[in-house]
Amino acid sequence: MTKPIVIVTEPLAPEPIAWLRERAEVIESAPGEPGFEDNIEKADALIVRTYTLVDGGLLARGKNLRVIGRAGVALDNFDLPACNQRGVTVVHAVGSNSSAVAEYVFALIHDALRPRLFLDEAVDLETWSEIRAEMVAPRQLEECTLGIYGLGRIGKRVARIAGAFGMRTIYNDLLEMPEDVRFGAEPVDVDTLLAESDILTVHVDDRPENRGLLNAAAFAKCRPDVLFLSCARGLIVDAAALADFLKANPDATAICDVHEPEPFGDDYPLLGLDNAHLAPHIAAATELAKTNMSWVVRDVVRVLAGETPECPAPGFG
Questions:
Q1: For residue 120, what are the domain limits?
Q2: Nearest-5° angle of CA 271, CA 272, CA 278?
Q3: CA 250 to CA 126: how far, in whole Å?
Q4: pLDDT tens for residues 196-241?
Q5: Phi and psi, residue 208, nearest 5°
Q6: Which CATH number is 29's domain given?
Q7: Catalytic site includes residue 262
Q8: Is residue 179 annotated as a catalytic residue, yes or no?
Q9: 33, 142, 262, 310: which is the annotated catalytic residue?
Q10: In the prediction, which pLDDT does 206 show?
Q11: 25 sits in which H/E element
C-alpha cells in the first residue's frame, strides 16, 4: 500500500517524527524552500508549528490535503473557516505544554521578585554583608495577590502552584467553574482583577475577539506597581498601550514572552524600556513539552486512516 505523503514544515521531536516515518512518506520542507511548491501539490497532510501560515493561498496549493496538524495548542496561524470550507480537518495538541508554561510563569515571577546572586570567588565580610543587604526581596509571594486572566488548562495549573505558595489568587474567565476545579482561586469581575492584582498573568485563548484585550483602558485600571506577565499570544496585548503604561508607571514591570509580530522589529514599542523584559517565545521550551506537542502526528495518522481524531480544532469534531 502506498504511504500517505506528510509535509512537516517546522521541526518535530525525534521520537514522534520517527513514529510518523513508519506510517507515512515524510517530507521536511517549509514554504519558500526549494521543492515546497511541488511537494504541497501532492501532500495528503501537513504538520506545522508556530510560524507556518495556513491560509487560503496555502490550502489552494495543497489540493490533496486532508488534514493539518498543529504541533502545539494555539491556532492563530490558521484560517480555520478556510480549512473547514475546503474539507481539511485541523488537529492540535491540546494540553501538551500546560505544565511547561505554568512552570515558566513562576520562573518569571521569581526572576522579578526575588533578587539573587552567586559568588564565584571569596569576599571579605564587608562585601559579604553588602551583598546580603542588596539581595533582600521587597515582597514574598504569600504577600501578593495573583490575578489570572483566563482559567483554562494553563490558568488552573498556575492557580494550583500559587496555592502552594500561599498566595491569594483571583481570576476572571468567561465560564463559571465549580470550586473543586479552581484550586482556591476566587472568581472576580475584570475591573477587580485588574485593580487588585499585584501580579497579573494572562492565559486567555487566541480567538479573534481577544485581540487587544489588554489595551489602554485595561492597563489604566492596573496597580502602578503591577508585575504583568504575557505568555499566551501576542495579539492579546496592545504593545503600544502597554509601553505607554510602563512609561507612566516606572514601578510597574512587564515580562512578555509572546509578541506580535514574531520576531519583532526595531519599531516594537516595548524595546528600550527598562521595565519591559522581552523573551523569544520560550514558555513551552522544554524537551517534554516539545515531545508532547509533536505527538499530534498520532491524530494526523488517525484522520488519514479515516478514524476520528482525539483533539480536533474547535469546529472540526
A1: 98-278
A2: 50
A3: 31
A4: 999 999 999 988 899 999 999 999 999 999 999 999 999 999 999 9
A5: -55, -35
A6: 3.40.50.720
A7: yes
A8: no
A9: 262
A10: 87
A11: strand 25-28
